[in-house]
Amino acid sequence: MSARRKIVLSWSGGKDSALALHALRQAGTWEVVALLTTVAEPYGRISHHGVRAELLRAQAEALGEALHVISLPDPCSNVLYEEAMGRAMRAYREAGVEAVAFGDIFLQDLRDYRERNLAPVGLGAEFPLWGQPTGPLLQRFLALGFRGVLACVDGAKLTRDFAGRAIDTALLADLPRGVDPCGENGEYHSFVWDGPIFKRPVPVRVGEIVQRDTRFFADLLPAAGPGASDA
Questions:
Q1: How far apart are CA 130 and CA 103, in angstroms?
Q2: Separation between Cα atoms, residue 29 and residue 18, nearest integer Å
Q3: What is the CATH number of the domain that holds 82?
Q4: Closest C-alpha among 37, 6, 32 to residue 197
Q5: Does any domain span residue 179?
Q6: More exposed terminus of the chain, fewer Cβ within 10 Å: N or C?
Q7: Alpha-carbon distance 8 to 68, whole Å?
Q8: Half-sphere exposure of 162 (CA within 13 A, CB side)
Q9: What are the pLDDT digits (tens) for 145-185?
Q10: Cα distance between residue 125 and residue 106, in whole Å
């Protein structure tokens, strides 16, 4: 039996990342050596999603995966971002990593950008969810037993009351026309706290809902109980 090839998974903590990790584990041909996440250093939160770094760490521990956090300033220019990512990618390549996986589904310009930046380093790009219809994909997420919550929503596309909602069949039914079921166009971002890839749940509760520009963020907090009390 040939050895599994080493891969890094670009990790946001949300449902597409979770589904990508599930697909990589199911395939059996890749060894995920790290979950790679960028965190806004001034706030200690996942970039763009606003999830606290302590929940990110608890999530990685519950998944049994190594976590690699790249701290970025806020604001962060594309130049600074690409320099930081370039250093990380070169180190991974030297350590024998062959590719980076992403949870992207259909945004071709984003895929082209990722492949273009990885090619000079000698790393491939893998997209385990690519081309899958997003409605059935979200239904599969639920059927597999994943559990998550909306951490951030775009106020131009979703109202404030969507922030902090559980990802379930009711959410899918309530999404307005024109909103992608998986939020692939940036309509929402999520945090997954349980599912078939977890060794144990990551209990969370929904705190304050905060507006920043056009986005509504649900401040997710560690919960004391065995499940998500408010999510």
A1: 8
A2: 17
A3: 3.40.50.620
A4: 32
A5: yes
A6: N
A7: 10
A8: 25
A9: 999 999 999 999 999 999 999 999 999 999 999 999 999 99
A10: 14
- Calculate the alpha carbon distances from 147 to 151, 184, 193 in Å: 13, 18, 6
- How much is the pLDDT for 135? 96
Residue-range definition of the domain harbouring residue 138: 134-222
In a domain, 189, yes or no: yes
β-strand partners of 194? 147
Q: Same domain for 15 and 108?
A: yes
Instruction: Report how far apart, in Å, the C-alpha atoms of 73 and of each of 2, 80, 84 are.
Output: 41, 9, 11
Q: Could you tell me how many residues make up the chain?
A: 231
User: Do 188 and 155 share a structural domain?
Assistant: yes
Mean pLDDT of 56-85: 95
The residue written with tokens 């930046």 in the block is 117
Which of 95, 126, 157 marks a domain boundary? 126
User: Please, are residues 32 and 9 in contact by the beta-carbon 8 Å criterion?
Assistant: yes
Residue 79's identity, in one-letter code, is V
Q: Parallel, antiparallel, or unpaired: how do β-strands 204-212 and 215-222 relate?
A: antiparallel
Choosing from 126, 157, 174, the residue where a domain stops is 126
What residues have CB less than 8 Å from 29, skipping those under 6 apart? Answer: 4, 5
Extract the tokens encoding 195: 């599912």
DSSP annotation of 52: B
Q: How many CB atoms lie within 10 A of CB 1?
A: 4
Does the residue 228 lie in any domain? no
